[in-house]
Amino acid sequence: GISAPLHGGLSQNDPMEEDLVTRLPFAMIDDIADGSPAALDGLLLGDEIVKFGSVEAGGRLQERLVSEALTSEDNQVSLLIIRQGSPMNLTITPRKWHGRGLMGCHFRIL
Questions:
Q1: Angle, CA of 57, 36 and 80, to the nearest 5°
Q2: Range list of β-strands (E), the chain
Q3: Which of 53, 56, 65, 107 is most buried, most CB within 10 Å of its CB?
Q4: 3-state SS, residue 21
Q5: Alpha helices of the chain — where are they, by DSSP H?
Q6: How far apart are CA 27 and CA 82, in angstroms?
C-alpha cells in the first residue's frame, strides 16, 4: 500500500501542467510612455501579458487588444501578467491622456 500514493502523485500533476499551459503569455510590454495610463496604473516594461480583459491567446491579438481597450475606455480592465517569472494580477483603466492611444504602451505579440 505504500507505493499507491506515489503512483497517484503522477496523475495529480496533470491539472497543474494544464494550468501552466493556459497561463502562457501572448504579448509583452515593449514600450511605455512616461505619465501614460499604463505607467500610472503600474505596468512595467517587460511585463508579459497572459490575459487582458477578455483577451487571451489566439488569433488577431493586436486588433482584439485594441478593441478591448477601446470598449473599456474609462473602465477598469483586469490583467494577468507575468513579471520576472511570477504571475500577478493588475488593473488598468484605458483613458484619454495627452499622448497616443488610451494606454500609452505597446504590446509586442509573442
A1: 30
A2: 27-32, 48-52, 77-83, 86-92, 105-109
A3: 107
A4: helix
A5: 3-22, 37-40, 61-71
A6: 10
- CB 83 within 8 Å of CB 64: no
pLDDT in tens, 57-104: 889 999 999 999 999 999 999 999 999 999 999 999 999 999 999 999
Quick one: how far is CA 1 from the chain centroid? 44
Q: Which three cell numbers stand for residue 60?
A: 488577431
Cα–Cα distance measured from residue 14 to residue 45, given in angstroms and rounded to the nearest whole number: 33
Task: Answer yes or no: are the C-beta atoms of 104 and 38 closer than 8 Å.
Answer: yes
Q: Which residue has the cell 505597446?
A: 106
The C-alpha cell at 110 is 509573442
Instruction: State the fold for domain 24-109.
Output: Pdz3 Domain (2.30.42)
**Cβ burial, residue 64 (10 Å; 0-12/13-18/19+):** middle
The domain spans of the chain are 24-109
